[in-house]
Amino acid sequence: MTIQSSSPSSDLSRLRIDRDAAPRRRWLPWVALLAVAGAGAAVYPSARAFVAERSAPEVEVGLVTQVAPAAAGGSAALPVLVATGYVVARHSSDVGVKTGGRISRLEFEEGTKVRKGRVIAQIEHADIDAQLEAARRAVTEAEAALVQMTAARDEDARNVERQRALAKDGITTTATLTAAEAAAAVSTARVASAQAAIATARARVRVAEEALENTNVRAPFDGVVIKKRAEVGETVSPFGVAGQAAREGGAIATIADLAELEVQTEVSENSVAKLTSRMPAEVKLQAYQDQPYIGRLRQIFPSADRAKSIVEVRVSIVNADARVKPEMTASVTFQEPQASAPGASKTPAPAAVATILVPKRAVAQQNGQAAVWIVRESTATRRAVTLGRERLDQVEVASGVLPGETVILGPPPGLTDRSLVRVKGK
Fold first, then answer.
1. What is the pLDDT of residue 17?
2. Which of 163, 284, 350, 394 makes the best surface tag, with the fewest CB within 10 Å?
3. Shortest CA distance to 127 belongs to which of 107, 106, 105, 99?
4. Which CATH number is 58-72+351-423 given?
5. What single DSSP character describes residue 273?
6. Which residues pair with 383 in a beta bridge?
7. How far is CA 37 from the centre of its chain?
8. Is residue 100 classed as helix, strand or coil in its secondary structure?
């Protein structure tokens, strides 16, 4: 409503109400204020929770795990030491040539199975063939010469007998008899020389045959070619050639016996005392983490590496299958031997109970009581636990936690029960 006046001194009778003017809406500011207040009230809890969560300490977490018993009536295998290494064949050889030359034939590819003594490659040998043929002909020539010398010796021997008969009757002279005997002696010596020449020629044949055999490369044992190092037409040498690694020494193939695979690993000098002969172990390949293999300690090398302070160890893979290949990365968990004491009672043992494990870093000591902090929905709850034996970086828990629960690793100081925490990485 608007009241119009032409001047301040106008009388009230001139006042009029303008009914066409738009009415003022004085309630709009109140409505807007109420809307803002309602939105703030709705957002406040979420904002407060967000701020509280962002200001909460950040923690690293781990899981409570459960280990099943190794066998009925037994106990879970106790890990002693963990090491990493590579899968190798117990019997492996870089097969090379005995004589240098150009490769004329190859009888293998990667993955080819070979038998001991099988020819897998051959070097060009035309010159050796010629030498062998010449040596064989020399044998034939020497044998023919022996026949001639033998005939001459026999004739000279008969002539000596005749001259002796004539000398007995006084028909011939002593000089003639002596000459006949000398000729017989010379013939006998020539026969011996021819026999020696035959032996020499036959030895040369054997030398040429051996040289020819040396152009063949044979498999040293039953196995599989795991690496091909040469091609037909390449020149090879027993001592290697330019561009070839010195350690290969003219090798043309690497053959391995895949029936006996093992893990080559290294153990610190300080940990060698924990290992025993034929100690059981669990082997896991990096490529197949979900497939454990049974291992057994085969050898602890008799010498250590002075520079690295480590000792090399070999662990046989008992149940290796086709997935296990040389040069694969593997981890080995050495386990405490599970052996019953001599003279132990034969009474059946009680049923084995699964073992619950938590990381050592999750355990905190408060007032002489071991405890862990359980995280659930960003809230940390203190839980008292009863500890058992230690297992590497884990410890057995007899009570207080359940498998699958999330625990804080290295709880921060000042952490209180039911306080908010932020999980690292989330």
1. 60
2. 350
3. 99
4. 2.40.420.20
5. G
6. 372
7. 68
8. coil
Q: What is the pLDDT of residue 241?
A: 53
The CA-based diameter of the chain, rounded to the nearest angstrom, is: 207
> Tell me, what's the pLDDT at 247?
43
The domain spans of the chain are 58-72+351-423, 79-90+258-335, 94-123+218-256, 126-213
- Chunked into runs of 10 residues, the chain (426 residues) has average pLDDT values of 49 59 62 70 56 70 76 55 91 90 93 94 94 94 94 92 88 88 92 94 95 94 92 85 52 91 92 89 91 93 91 94 92 77 48 76 86 89 87 83 89 84 79
Those residues with Cβ within 8 angstroms of residue 407's Cβ, 6 or more apart along the chain or in another chain: 61, 62, 63, 64, 358, 359, 362, 372, 373, 374, 375, 401
Instruction: Tell whether the torsion through CA atoms of 315, 319, 325 and 331 is positive or negative.
Output: negative
Q: Is the pTM of this model over 0.85?
A: no
What sign results for the dihedral spanned by CA atoms 195, 200, 205, 209? positive
Instruction: Please give the backbone phi and psi of residue 24, each rounded to the nearest 5 degrees, phi first.
Output: -80, 135
CA–CA separation, 94 vs 219, rounded Å? 10
CA distances (Å), 423 to each of 6, 45, 59, 426, in order?
Answer: 76, 21, 5, 6
> Hunting for tokens 């297992």 — which residue is that?
391
- pLDDT given at position 315: 95
- Laid out side by side, the sheet with 394-399 consists of 65-67, 355-359, 394-399, 386-391
Q: Note the pLDDT of residue 174.
A: 87
Structure tokens, 37: 């207040």
Whole-number pLDDT of residue 14: 63
Query: Scanning the structure block, which residue is given the tokens 């040369």?
Result: 204
Query: The domain 94-123+218-256: what is its CATH number?
Result: 2.40.50.100
Query: Rounded to an integer, what distance in angstroms lies between the CA atom of residue 105 and that of residue 267?
Result: 44
Q: What is the CATH number of domain 79-90+258-335?
A: 2.40.30.170
Predicted local confidence at residue 221, as pLDDT? 92
Give the E-state strand segments of 257-410 in sequence order: 261-268, 280-285, 292-305, 310-317, 329-335, 355-359, 364-366, 369-376, 379-384, 386-391, 394-399, 406-409
